[in-house]
Target: Glycosyltransferase subfamily 4-like N-terminal domain-containing protein
Amino acid sequence: MKIAAFGHYPIHRPLHGGQRRVAAIARQAREAGHIFRYVPIYSTRGYPDGSPDEQRTAVPMALLPRLHDPQRREDLHISDALAAHPLIPGLIGELRDFAPDAVQFEHPWLYPLFAEALERDPILRRARLIYSAHNVEAALIDPHWRAQAEALEAALVAAADLVIAVCEADARHFACQPGAPAIVVAPNGCWAPDPEALPPAPLDGAYALVAGSAHPPNATGYWASFGEIPGFLPPRSRLAVAGAMTHLITTDPRYERYAQMNAEFVAPLGVVAEETLSGLLYHARAICLPITEGGGTNLKTAEALLSCKPVVAMRPAMRGFEDAEGLSGVHVADDPVQLRRLLRDAMTGAIGSQRRPEDVAQYGWPAQLAPLMSRYESLAA
Model:
């Protein structure tokens, strides 16, 4: 089957969870024998490192000021910014030449740019329409824009032949939408660590790893879970904070107010290469998931589970991974006080983990995306 997928970020060098999920779907689809063509339409301000082929479909420089207008949302209004630009008719022409069996949208934001062609073009209207939902977008958006996001998401669900949900809760939400099609649940996952690899240690000393993107709920969870200073940690241990969430933390007045003390307890690493992340996971004393809100499921949870290290998580981090709560070394807290106690115990060795790779193989991408690959096969039949 030929699948054309559209998203609003490149995946050549996947860093945040959305990029990793799309890259994993593309890889698994190709390994299953499908022709999977992914086209990103994105801002180079947010993603300056797309491949040459990806940069070909980036938002033109002249439109970036409009796209990044502080009175608008980049994702919600990207279709408005591009509606009259010749980039889109060109892409529709390329899509027609490709003659896909299915057209898949990662998130709903780009759908309005192609909706009319998918409905009326004699070649494109034969393609199955797939909405690959990374979460319930309208539930996470600023209330000022919520109605607009709800309408967009509802229109795509009603037009789709298939909706991909990341968890059962999201699937139930989409199933209640008017005109909802078949829904497949394909949870988030990660790639299993190489058992033969021994990555170098990026940090000296004992540390608990906290990683996340610049998604605002990641910072919210950090402050709710750890407070202004993570002074509950045992002596000579730190929180290693990796990913784009680092900038949200270190530029916050709460961090800067106690900069000297935070320098003792926090190792801010920023966005790190894949090899560095592997080293951080391998050498961490514990993996902490201070997630207190948000939707969908979290790739960092799968990553933490597959590390086989002690995992200390706030309960919302286990959304979609509830069956893992009974595994060895998985410790779930219902409030920040309990999380800090559990994390301190993990850092001192009072609690540990006996998980084995075979205990958590079901959280790797091949297993998590297997239901989607099966549904692709049924669409192609």
About this structure: The domain at 206-363 is CATH 3.40.50.2000 (Rossmann fold). The first strand starts at residue 2 and ends at 7.
